[in-house]
Amino acid sequence: MRKTGWAVSGGIESADVKELQHSDSGPSAQRCPDDVPAPVGRSRGARALQAGLSAAVVLCVATTLVHVVLVFLHVAPANTVSKRYSPLINAWVYPFFEQNWRLFAPDPESVNRQILARTAHTDSSGSVRVSAWFDLTAVDHSAVRHDPFPSHTAQNLLRRAWTCYVDSHGGDDKAHTERALMMQRYLRNIAADRVAAHNGGTFDFIQLRVVTLPIAASGPGVGRASGNRPPTPVENRLLPWWKVTPHGE
Fold first, then answer.
1. What is the pLDDT of residues 54-100, one digit of tens each?
2. How far apart are alpha carbons 14 and 185 in whole angstroms?
3. pTM
4. Residue 207 contacts by C-beta under 8 Å, 6 or more apart in sequence?
């Protein structure tokens, strides 16, 4: 009885060993896909992509922090840091990131400005031909009037260029700073491009004239009191002739 039991037990034990051996060897077709090693080239490409994304994120965050700090120093009251790094701050802020408080404390216009331009060209004989005055402001008004969705360029480009020119030049029309020279070129190029687009022709010089008119008060009795007379200009400013790149050739 003991021998038989040992044999049976031994037989079961032998079967278990065989089953384990069979399970350990296993067919290669049933191997888990996760056990297959990844190609070396693919892993390197993934690491390079991850490194590039990380560098881009770090660069964006650093640029944002620098931008916030420089704009804050620009709008903050004058202090030691803003005075010391004023050239760097102005170079970053102007002309694209200029900040002011007009959104929160608007200063409505009390006058209307009419900006006119005329051109000059020297022909082959040496004679100078000067054109008639061309109303740049009237072109902007006609583009905005009766347009339900007027463009920002037609509404503000010329007006803001003149405002920045006055702020940087004062009343002598001389560029004493690098920003003043930049605003002079900006206003000159806008006027030259618009004259060339509407009038055509060839010109080498351009001159601007700005007529400032007061805004008439509203009311039923105002028109009768003034006799419907046009407002008297409070300023008629004639700018010097500016040399421009030849247009219309």
1. 999 999 999 999 999 998 888 888 888 888 988 888 888 876 777 76
2. 98
3. 0.56
4. 117, 118, 119, 120, 238, 239, 240, 241, 242
